[in-house]
Amino acid sequence: MTPPDEYASVRYLVDDVPAAIDFYTSHLGFTLHTNPAPAFADVIRGPLRLLLSGPASSGARATPTDVTGPGGNRIHLVVSDLDAEITRLRAAGVAFRSDVVSGPGGRQILLADPAGNLIELFQPTAHR
């Protein structure tokens, strides 16, 4: 297990903490770390600690009123087989926010959590 001071933490504002927990743990391989109240939870995947802050959490309350929705930032999850992940997630009813995009570094696709926060699934190009 990664020591707490070695996690890279990202906070996502969500409007339904239980739905966010279910999404990340059911579909994207995260495990629930803590869930002290319905206002907040954190999930972990490797060294990434994703803070899921509901409307009553201190993280959400500290957000300025002119920043009310999810932004264009996203977490970036590396996968070994993008096509297999897309098939698996579509079968589970997950909708994608983009088509597959290919570039010199690899292929990617965007999806969103129940609150609209973006997640990028990325398969790097195999180097020969």
TrEMBL record:
Domain VOC: 6-124
CDD domains per record: VOC (cd06587)
Pfam families: Glyoxalase
Transmembrane portions of the chain: none
Protein name, as recorded: VOC family protein
